[in-house]
Amino acid sequence: MNSDLLVSASLLGCDLSNLENEIKRAQDAGADWLHFDVMDGIFVPNISFGQPVLKAVKKCASVPIDTHLMIKDPIRYVEEFAKAGSHMITFHIEATREPLMVIDRIRSSGAKAGISVKPGTPVGMIKELVPYVDMVLIMTVEPGFGGQGFIHETLKKVSMVKALAESAGKKIHIEVDGGINSKTAAECRNAGADVFVSGTYLFNSQDMSKAVASIKGL
Ligand code: DX5
Ligand code: ZN
């Protein structure tokens, strides 16, 4: 069993009226990271939460915070999200014309850099960037909402990124996000993913420790 697998609990799926307890519940259940989804109502047709909420999360969190920026022109907000407590900041290739500058800005702000592709975006769009990032996030649903069904066609992109990273001699994380449960996580593990974002499945489970373990195949 691979102990390097990580589960990132997506706070979009938690009971926001009870945020501190939900964070504790996820951490106590063994979640390795907390996933913080930022939506601007422009890049995606939904609005979630921003830096003030991230600062509040940071106060109660004891695990790294994995920030997923679903915002247009992410370079504008990278520093603020790094300062607010992000360990990793992931942005979308579809949201910027200056991905290398965004990566540099994330790193110079003290966070690790991730890049993401929507389900319809080919891996070719980020091919040249793989050697420069710490993580690639393959969206397994259309970004914007929790609780959607996993898109199986995205699995081949996970394998493609794994092959690209190996041929570049780079050890990067490959994260999947959207519709992850014990069954879809197994398919993603087989394809080469090592970080699993989960909102609905984790926070709706009666026994979250079991749910975390099942995502890792334990
Ligand atoms: C969707 C978000 C996800 C979302 C996943 O745009 O990026 O992180 O919270 O939720 P589930 O696990 O419910 O698909
Ligand atoms: Zn996300």
Structural description of this entry:
With 218 residues, this protein is of the alpha/beta class. Helices cover 33% and strands 20% of the residues. An eight-stranded parallel barrel has the order 1-2-3-4-5-6-7-8. The longest helix is centred in the last third of the chain and has 13 residues, at 155-167. The N and C termini lie close together (7 Å). The chain binds D-xylitol-5-phosphate and zinc ion (ZN). Zinc ion (ZN) binds next to strand 2.
* Count of extended strands: 8
Number of helices: 8
Q: Structural class, from secondary structure content?
A: alpha/beta
Poorly predicted spans: none
Radius of gyration: 16 Å
- Summarize the amount of helix as a percent range: 25-40%
Question: How many strands, which pairing sense, and closed or not: the largest β-sheet?
Answer: 8 strands, parallel, barrel
Distance between the termini: 7 Å
The strand line-up of the biggest sheet is: 1-2-3-4-5-6-7-8
What is the residue-averaged pLDDT?
97
Q: What labels would you give this structure?
A:
218 residues, binds D-xylitol-5-phosphate, alpha/beta, binds zinc ion, eight-stranded parallel beta barrel, 8 helices, 20% strand
Topology:
Elements: E1 6-10, H1 19-28, E2 33-39, H2 51-60, E3 65-70, H3 78-83, E4 88-92, H4 99-108, E5 112-117, E6 135-139, H5 155-167, E7 173-177, H6 182-191, E8 195-198, H7 200-203, H8 208-215
Parallel strand pairs: 1-2, 1-8, 2-3, 3-4, 4-5, 5-6, 6-7, 7-8
